[in-house]
Amino acid sequence: MSTYETDAIAAADEFRRVVATGSASQLVTMRLRAGEEIGEEVHGHGDQLLLVVEGEADAVLDGRTTRLGPGGIAFVPAGTRHNVVNAGDGDLRLLSIYAPPEHPDGTVHRTKAEADAAEHEDVH
User: Is residue 23 part of a domain?
Assistant: First the structure.
């Protein structure tokens, strides 16, 4: 069994870091700089749960925007077009849970540009 401290994993400095991958779900940390966004996407095969640890986020689900602060949660069912935008002046730190896993275990994308390039190459 693995345990993680929310503060420790949320302090990750990369855009995306896969922390743990199980057979049915995956835990990922994300950090978005001021003005940065994940980018609109749809996960057709699984659900996603986003938890704001630090900062302010605009969670956009199927065109509807909700402002979330620390402790705020967005549930993204499979097939939902979604985006998360850093709505604050500082970093936005998120925990993302995918069910089933979305990225290869051990994935680290230091920047959004690196993540976008990997998506373009169809390599997470």
Answer: yes
pLDDT tens-place string over residues 81-118: 999 999 999 999 999 999 998 888 888 888 888 888 88
Report the percentage of the chain scoring pLDDT > 70.
Answer: 89
Distance CA 73, CA 47 (A): 13
Task: Determine, yes or no, domain membership for 104.
Answer: yes
Which residues fall within 8 angstroms of residue 44, CB to CB, at 6 or more apart? 78, 79
Portion of the chain with pLDDT greater than 90, in percent: 67
Does a structural domain hold residue 48? yes
Produce one character per residue of 89-116: b if its CB has 16 or more CB atoms within 10 Å, e if not: eebbbbbbbbeebbbeeebebeebeebe
Q: Name the domain count of the chain.
A: 1
